[in-house]
Backbone:
């Protein structure tokens, strides 16, 4: 696939995600405004502030960071360990927040903001950023995956998982299973995005693109193998274990 075609597809995905998020925001805002027009204005004001603080500002900081040389620059073992720890903590926090959340639009915003924050912190840690094309692909991966997960989560609302699993007397079981699945999928996306960003920041655009299929396969395998530990720590820490989210 040509690079220009890939960029067009990524831009189209991001556009679709933005439209989806805006639609959800307008729906929520309309419900709030029915209580009071001033509450509606306050809702939009708070939303704009959160978007500026947790999406726009970190993105600008990433963009204005010097780009890594195409040939890359290998990390020391200590730096790689610290970066891996940052990615794991981000995945744990995403797991906890999207597990307890019962709102698709909120999950999308949470995943976008927390993944952008993670990328920003990795870039700060490294002192360099991936190419703009690579950043766009990371954003598109987070956004499109979050929308798909949120859509699947809403579709499951019409399915009684407790009855499906032969637990008709315990309705709460279905809710817990659905929430846990949602949290795990979002955490997996965060883990893969973080690991991909690290490979970009270490290998550079030339080496990464040269070995893209094998690198992506390796990232998928490692992300899946680390998920049990991420989920276990997320459950153990719970809401009180959310630290340094942004």
Residues:
């Amino acid at each position: 696939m040509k690079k220009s075609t890939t960029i067009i597809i990524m831009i189209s995905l991001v556009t679709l995600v933005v439209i989806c998020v805006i639609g959800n925001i307008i729906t929520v805002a309309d419900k709030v405004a029915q209580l009071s027009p001033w509450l509606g204005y306050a809702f939009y004001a708070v939303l704009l502030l959160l978007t500026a603080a947790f999406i726009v500002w970190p993105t600008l900081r990433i963009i204005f960071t010097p780009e890594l040389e195409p040939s890359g620059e290998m990390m020391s073992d200590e730096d790689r360990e610290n970066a891996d720890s940052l990615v794991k903590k981000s995945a744990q926090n995403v797991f906890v927040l999207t597990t307890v959340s019962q709102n698709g639009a909120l999950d999308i915003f949470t995943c976008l903001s927390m993944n952008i924050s993670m990328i920003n912190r990795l870039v700060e840690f490294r002192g360099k950023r991936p190419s703009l094309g690579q950043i766009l692909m990371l954003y598109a991966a987070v956004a499109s995956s979050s929308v798909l997960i949120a859509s699947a989560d809403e579709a499951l609302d019409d399915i009684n998982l407790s009855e499906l699993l032969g637990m008709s007397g315990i309705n709460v079981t279905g809710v817990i299973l659905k929430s846990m699945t949602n949290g795990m999928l979002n955490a997996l996306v965060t883990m893969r995005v973080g690991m991909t960003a690290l490979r970009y920041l270490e290998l550079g655009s030339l080496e990464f693109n040269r070995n893209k299929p094998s690198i992506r396969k390796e990232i998928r395998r490692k992300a899946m193998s680390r998920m049990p530990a991420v989920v276990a720590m997320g459950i153990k820490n719970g809401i009180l274990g959310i630290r340094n989210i942004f």
